[in-house]
Amino acid sequence: MNGDVRPLKQRQALTVEPNPYNAPNEVNDSRLLATYNEQIKFLVSREIELFSDRLHICGNVRAIRIDANVPLQDLVTPPDRIWLRSRHFVWATWLNWILLGALAVAYFGFETRAMGLIGLSTIILIPALVYLIYNARQNEYAQYKNSSGVVVFDLCRRGPSAAEFEAFNNAIASAVSRLANHAMQRSGGGDVSASGESTPAAR
Questions:
Q1: Is the pTM for the entire model greater than 0.85?
Q2: SS3 of residue 138 by DSSP
Q3: b or e along 151-161 (b: 16 or more beta carbons within 10 Å of the residue's beta carbon)?
Q4: Transmembrane residues, as ranges (predicted)?
């Protein structure tokens, strides 16, 4: 006997220590760090929330509803950068070719020109050309891969948050780096920079 006459449950409660990895301000606390709103009219509308341990993606992509989480530990930084035109450009190109074909048929395909068809095609062709020019620009994407080289998440510089595109990517890189450093410190390893390079631990 050690002389402690308190109930067993009370003595056990005194020996329980809080888990340091669930303490406030730790990476496992899953704090919201930043939000990015991405939008390509009629195609994509997403809200991407960056937490300290994951990305939460919610919205619509080509009429498909998405509500998913991407663990940061799966991402490799820095991301690849690609530039693509949206499907609006493809649609606008086809629309203009069809209208030009209709104009050619109406002008040359009849003995007497089909003035009604010529007028209608011309009226539609003007906004169609504007639609084509507006969507001719290329959209910049940041593509994040996992360690196997598979793209698991991408981010487009379009929408209300386009001006924060670089800042949001930097926030992702910092969060991934912190998470990797946390894991390596627990295992006794070195630190990982935001670029994905590791440095040896101090001895």
A1: no
A2: coil
A3: eebebbbbbeb
A4: 89-108, 114-134
